Amino acid sequence: TVNRTYLSVDLGASSGRVVAGHLDDGRMVTEVIHRFDNVPVAVREGGREVLHWNVLRLYEGILTGVRLAARRRNVVSLGIDTWAVDYGLLDADGALLGNPVHYRDSRTDGVAAEVFTHLPAEMLYERTGLQYQPFNTIFQLAAAAGSAQLATARRLLLLPDLLGYWLTGVAVAEATNASTTGLLDVAARGWSAEILLALRGALGMDLGPLLPPVVEPGTQIGTVDVAGLPEVPLVAVGSHDTASAVVGVPGDGDFAYISCGTWSLVGIELAEPVLSEASRDGNFTNELGVDGSVRYLRNVMGLWLLQECVREWAEAGEEIDLAELLAQSEEVTALRCVVDVDDSAFLAPGGMPERLAQAAAEAGEPVPRTRAEMVRAILDSLALAYRRALRAASDLAEREISVIHLVGGGSRNELLCRLTAEATGLPVIAGPVESTALGNLLVQARSLGDLGEGVDLTGLHRLALASAHQELTRYEPRGGRADWDAAEARLR
Ligand code: ADP
Ligand code: LRH
């Protein structure tokens, strides 16, 4: 099987990559074939600038990566995952109507409150299990109500499904990602007729006919039909990047995960959703995972805060070396300044150092004076938020947590890993960096029958461990919790 190569396309909010994988002696051996930036673009629409994804640029990155891989390898399948919630609309001819809008665009400001008058938040949570985020697809659609595009649309495709449609001509809605729309019934794992009906009032239209059939991960969607690309099956993977990232966690037993990139998705894997009032209050989400599982987690603002600071400083004309900045922040007094990273004030792009300084001042914390202090404040605050989220997950789901797996680009941040172990009092196992690609590839291999019979989700985690064990780093919790308890008390 050395020659049998699966190709994963993984688009994160900050970059995209095409990663090849082949099986060798019970391991998935991976190679990053092509990596490209993901840079949103603001474009005028009538009275204001709207933040869009550069979706054709991303598609072009995918084509380049697949071509490069096919030149050197025997490609047998393809799978696509991207960030959640965002979508494209197609007209009756199958043409894309406008560029997909970025979930950080301000069009959803104040929209959820309006939707809740038609669909009470309690009822929405009971049916969908989905956390409240202002950018959930349901609120984006409500923001677009009455637009020419929505009136003309015949199909709504989430980003991975749109890219898959361009590759194969087949339109589906993969379940894990569909679970982030606010339109899916978490128990039935299908579109909720009840919500669609109630939404008619809010939108003045019936969304039902726009929604394609829901498919579960592992389904072969169709065959790639693009000049110059191999004619291989497109396999539905956990097309929500976080779903694939969780498959790629090399965990066993009572583990929690932190999928740490632009966002930090902090939680546990469950067999059944937790739909209690307390869970809704805690803003925990029950997103669908592969094999009927539930990803019970909270969105923590993540390395977005750091990315945006770095971007701002670099735009001011300075060369920023992340490794150096992190080394300097290591020298800063611990827990000097902490802020609530989950404040929605941090969601939008731009002006991040100023917004962080303002949040510190408002919380009565010493305002960071240097870049190193700013970076340290972000990392201390993130570790504190991880600790809060993991304790809440454990309480709400009544589950023990004995180890944390921190995966994604953030697993390269040694200071963050160490702080997370200190704050939580739990060992942190960092890596793999590309857990999302790994989870994507494993689901393809299983769908093609190459993993043999009977490999369940536990088996996929074991394969992830076998594949990644050489790149894992373990951080033991050291020191007392007292400083962290005090910092948490300050934030409250
Ligand atoms: P996404 O999928 O959301 O685009 P990634 O999983 O690719 O995110 O993670 C990107 C983040 O990983 C960056 O914002 C950066 O903070 C962190 N990162 C990447 N490489 C390093 C590194 N060498 N040292 C520290 N942090 C890193
Ligand atoms: C992470 C992610 C996360 C969503 C957000 C929109 O990339 O998919 O799980 O909440 O982006």
Structural notes for this entry:
The protein is an alpha+beta fold and 492 residues long. It is 38% helix and 22% strand. It is built from 18 helices and 21 strands. It has helices at residues 55-72, 111-118, 121-128, 137-143, 148-152, 159-168, 175-178, 193-203, 241-247, 277-281, 304-315, 322-330, 352-362, 371-397, 414-424, 435-447, 457-468, 482-491; strands at residues 4-11, 15-24, 27-37, 41-45, 48-52, 74-82, 87-90, 155-158, 173-174, 184-185, 190-191, 214-215, 220-223, 233-235, 255-260, 264-270, 285-288, 294-300, 403-407, 428-430, 473-475. A seven-stranded mixed beta sheet has the order 17-18-16-15-19-20-21, sandwiched between helices. A four-stranded mixed beta sheet has the order 3-2-1-6. A hairpin with a 4-residue loop joins strand 10 and strand 11 (190-191). The longest helix has 27 residues, at 371-397. The radius of gyration is 22 Å and the shape is globular. The N and C termini lie far apart (55 Å). The mean pLDDT is 97. Bound molecules: adenosine-5'-diphosphate (ADP) and 6-deoxy-beta-L-fructofuranose (LRH). Adenosine-5'-diphosphate (ADP) binds at residues 12-15, 261-262, 303, 306-307, 322, 408-410, 412-413. This is Rhamnulokinase. It comes from Bogoriella caseilytica. Belongs to the FGGY kinase family. Residues 6-248 form the Carbohydrate kinase FGGY N-terminal domain. One of its GO terms (molecular function) is glycerol kinase activity.
